[in-house]
Amino acid sequence: MLLILAALTWLPGTLQLVDSPWLTAAVVLVLFPIFAAAFACVLLTRADRHSVWLAFRCLPGAVQGALGGLVVSGIVVILVSIASTGNLQSAEVRDGRYFVLDTTPYERGRVEVSRSQYVAVLESDQRSMLAIPGILFAAAAYLALAAGELRRADEGLRM
Predict the structure, then answer these.
(1) Three-class SS state of 109
(2) How far apart are CA 30 and CA 48, in angstroms?
(3) What distance in Å separates the CA atoms of residue 135 and residue 12, rounded to the nearest whole number?
(4) What DSSP designation does 133 have?
(5) CA-CA distance, 120 to 115, in Å (whole number)?
(6) Distance between CA 136 and CA 119 in Å, rounded?
(7) What is the pLDDT of residues 53-101, one digit of tens each?
(8) Which positions ≥6 away from 60 have C-beta within 8 Å?
(9) What are phi and psi of 59, to 5 degrees?
C-alpha cells in the first residue's frame, strides 16, 4: 500500500493524504512493533543468515517473487526520487516563500526556490517517506516467513 502511494506521487499535484501527520504516526506505530517481532522470531530460531536465506528459498516462488518485487520497486522509487531532486530535501513554506534544505557539501543550508522546485522536492520527500517503510515492511515479511519456515523444518526433524 505504501509503495502504491509512493508511486502515486508521480501523478500531477500533491497527495494531501501523505502530508497528514496521522499517516506518519500510524506507519511508525505499526512498523516498529511488526519489524521488531519479525526480527525477534528470527533471533529465537538461533539460525545464521545463510540458514535464514535457505529457509526463504524454500517458500513458494510466488511469495519469493512478490517480496522481491516489493523490495526492488521500493529501491527503484527511492533511487529515482533521489536522482530527480539531487541534494535538495525538506521542503517548507515560510511567509509565502518556498525553502528547501540544500545538502551539497560545503554549501549546506536553507535556500529559497521556485514553487515548481518546491513541489518537486515535496513529492520526492513524500516518495521517500512512503517507500522506506514499505521496504521495511517487506523485510519484516521476509524475516517472519523465513522464521516460520525454519520452525517448520525444525518440527520436521523432531518427528
Answers:
(1) strand
(2) 27
(3) 24
(4) H
(5) 9
(6) 26
(7) 999 999 999 999 999 998 998 898 888 887 877 778 777 888 888 888 8
(8) none
(9) -70, 160
